């Protein structure tokens, strides 16, 4: 191999090793910082403050809410936090940052005063339950519902026909004595028969 290519490969390996070491020492900050930096303002870096450590997520602002993907209880969901004040955002390292208290799910201003938040896991569970709510969409259920309606219509028609027939039978019963009186044999004297 040419010595210039060998030198370029060795420098490339050195760069990759240094990037690997930096990313390992910063515990997830390096790649997220790089993604936010390369987005040119589309994303913000969310620093989530917990009791014993801070961790970072890439977030974005959507319809006056801070959104970021989080993972809790082995479920990945998008967290939405309402932005009540624009004072929570600050610039550092050429990117926009925002701090979030994990316990209260509230945005924190740079002077460490909090803004009220809500429980994202509860909201995510409610949205999931609403999306998976049972609905009539299965073909078998629709066919059964249509057949049930048809049976109810046919049953209603049969009841109406039975009512009309019972009324007709009552009319016939009341007409029978007059018909019998009309059909009584008329006694004709024998002399009248030729």
Q: Which keywords apply here?
A:
194 residues; alpha+beta; 2 domains; 7-stranded mixed beta sheet; 7 strands
Describe this structure in words.
The protein is built from four helices and seven strands. It is of the alpha+beta class and 194 residues long. Strand 2 and strand 3 form a beta hairpin. The mean pLDDT is 82.
β-strand percent reads 15-25%
Count of discrete alpha- or pi-helical segments spanning 4 or more residues: 4
Main β-sheet: number of strands, strand sense, barrel status? 7 strands, mixed
Secondary-structure-based class equals: alpha+beta
Number of strands: 7
Question: What percentage of residues falls in helices of 4 or more residues?
Answer: 40-55%
Broad shape: rod-shaped
pLDDT < 50 stretches: none
Number of domains: 2
Question: What is the N-to-C order of secondary-structure elements (H for helix, E for strand)?
Answer: HHEEEEEEEHH
**Average pLDDT:** 82
Taking the alpha carbons of the first and last residues, their distance comes to 149 Å
Rg over CA atoms: 43 Å
């Amino acid at each position: 191999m040419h010595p210039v290519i060998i030198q370029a490969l060795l420098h490339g390996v050195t760069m990759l090793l240094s990037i690997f070491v930096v990313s390992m020492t910063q515990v997830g900050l390096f790649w997220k910082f790089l993604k936010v930096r390369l987005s040119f303002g589309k994303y913000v870096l969310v620093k989530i403050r917990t009791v014993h450590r801070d961790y970072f997520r890439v977030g974005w602002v959507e319809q006056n809410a801070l959104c970021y993907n989080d993972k809790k209880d082995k479920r990945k969901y998008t967290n939405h936090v309402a932005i009540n004040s624009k004072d929570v955002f600050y610039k550092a390292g050429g990117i926009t940052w925002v701090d979030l208290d994990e316990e209260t799910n509230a945005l924190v201003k740079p002077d460490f005063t909090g803004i009220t938040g809500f429980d994202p896991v509860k909201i995510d569970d409610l949205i999931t339950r609403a999306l998976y709510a049972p609905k009539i969409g299965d073909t078998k259920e629709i066919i059964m519902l249509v057949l049930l309606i048809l049976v109810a219509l046919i049953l209603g028609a049969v009841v109406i026909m039975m009512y009309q027939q019972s009324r007709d039978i009552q009319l016939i019963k009341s007409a029978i004595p007059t018909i019998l009186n009309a059909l009584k044999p008329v006694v004709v004297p024998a002399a009248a028969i030729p």
